[in-house]
Amino acid sequence: MMQDNSFSQKRWLADVAQQLSQLLDQQRLPHGILFNGHPGSGTQDIAQWLAQQLLCTTNGLWGEACGQCKACSLLRAGNHPDLVHVAAEKAHIGVDSIRQANQFLIKKAQLGQAKVVIIEQAELMTEAAANALLKTLEEPTAYSVLLLTSHDSDRLLATIRSRCTLIDIRPPVGQQLKENVVASQLIDDYSNMSHLAQLQNEVVAQEFIDFETIFAQWLATPYFNEEFTELLTEQPKALAWLAQHFSAAMRFKNQWQGIRESVVSAELAKLSDECLQQCYTLLLMVSRQLKQLTQVNKSFVIESLVIDLQKLIGDNAKQGKADRK
Ligand SMILES: [Zn+2]
């Protein structure tokens, strides 16, 4: 079907599309969505796809786009009256473009019910533009959906990020990436683009090795928390690296081929699936939480995280001994 055609070059988008379809079915689609991913990951494709699902008139507001109706053909031609596409002129998205989009969202839809605004590379909004968008994100008009895309969501105002549902688009690249990276010893076949920094930049590669060393030490002696806590607080990438270790350990345990063996993954693979899953979920939750906190709260959250991880891993070890008796 359409979906397959549009994603044949970017098959990873099909999973994202499926999740979005479910939200549409359940009428739980958020009013503001931010698709974040590296250039080429398809953030724009998925935003366009979702706009079509929302605007197709044949299958109703929440059905799947037919590709045949007037709305669908207008979309293909790039002139659907209920879709506004905002992109940077020169290097920025100015406040006027956002004001126009806001005005558009106040009006009634012309063809169906939904109105959609796509803001391409939203991180290019000037501060004035971002502030103008905030109000619309805070007080949505009926049937209006704001779809933002970005290549670097960290460059967006925190207030914009917190009012959108963030969907990370992560194409797997594995072998392809392996062939042209600086530190190819750091990569396995399941690496994806979230690893790019530590693979392409030697400084970051060294930081990653340092991180691994301290993490391995902590795993061996988990009651010395200080250095590990400090590392997680100071190194902005540490939480993501930690999460990657837990997900790699889950795959390692399930005997996926091609996983890079390291002291760390071998050590983590001793933990039960359930424990790994719990640690991983905890890390994702904490990362999300941290994006919204000030510096003061941050160290508290990290300290609690380390204690929680220690407890999860400690309980697992006790359980292991009890099972063997
Ligand atoms: Zn249609």
Summary tags:
disordered N terminus, DNA_Rep/Repair_Clamp_Loader, transferase, Rossmann fold, Zinc Finger, Delta Prime, domain 3, 325 residues, alpha/beta, 15 helices, DNA-directed DNA polymerase activity, P-loop_NTPase, five-stranded parallel sheet, binds zinc ion
Could you explain the architecture of this structure?
By secondary structure, the protein is of the alpha/beta class. It has 15 helices and 5 strands. The chain has a 5-stranded parallel sheet with strand order 2-3-4-1-5, with helices on both faces. Helix 5 links the parallel strand 2 and strand 3. The N terminus is likely disordered. Bound molecules: zinc ion. The site of zinc ion (ZN) has 9 residues, from helix 4. Zinc ion binds next to helix 4. Keywords: DNA-directed DNA polymerase, Nucleotidyltransferase, Transferase. This is DNA-directed DNA polymerase.
The strand count comes to 5
- Report how far apart the termini are: 56 Å
Integer average pLDDT: 80
Largest sheet: 5 strands, parallel
Residue share in β-strands: 5-15%
What is the CATH topology of the largest domain? Rossmann fold
**Low-confidence sequence ranges:** 1-5, 175-194
Question: Could you say which overall geometry the principal axes of the C-alpha atoms support?
Answer: elongated
CATH architecture annotation of the largest domain:
3-Layer(aba) Sandwich
User: What top-tier CATH class of the largest domain fits best?
Assistant: Alpha Beta
Order of helices and strands: HHEHHEHEHEHEHHHHHHHH
State the share of residues found in helices, binned by percent: 40-55%
Hetero groups in this structure are: zinc ion
Helix tally equals: 15
Strand order of the largest sheet: 2-3-4-1-5
Number of domains: 2
State Rg: 22 Å
Structural category: alpha/beta
CATH superfamily of the largest domain: P-loop containing nucleotide triphosphate hydrolases
